[in-house]
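Page 37, continued from 36.
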């Protein structure tokens, strides 16, 4: 690609030209961010979002073992398909609301 500079001389612009390199670097960073966001934002299934063990443990800041204990004790609703365990986001929100305790004053 050629461009006419201020003096009327032709300058060859390549990917190694600092301005072009900076442009492509910013595009690469944006694409990385888009990819990260698209992995996190799964589309809902019949209007519901389902979370994996890992996702829920990260959100609740508890271990995956604690989630397993909650399942075994019947404290947390879940779906199991083979070895895959899923949690309906609305069930988790309801469970959290039901277990809310007001602070003492």
């Amino acid at each position: 690609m050629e461009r006419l500079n201020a003096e009327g001389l032709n300058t060859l612009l390549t990917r190694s030209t600092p301005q072009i390199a900076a442009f492509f670097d910013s595009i690469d960073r944006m694409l990385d961010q888009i990819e990260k966001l698209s992995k996190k934002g799964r589309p809902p299934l019949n209007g519901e979002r389902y979370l994996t063990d890992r996702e829920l443990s990260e959100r609740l800041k508890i271990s995956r073992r604690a989630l397993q204990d909650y399942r075994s004790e019947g404290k947390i609703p879940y779906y199991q398909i083979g070895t895959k365990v899923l949690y309906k986001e609305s069930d988790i929100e309801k469970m959290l609301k039901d277990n809310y305790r007001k602070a003492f004053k």
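Residues 50-98 form a domain with the Arc Repressor Mutant, subunit A fold (CATH 1.10.10.10). Flag for discussion at group meeting. The first strand starts at residue 2 and ends at 4.
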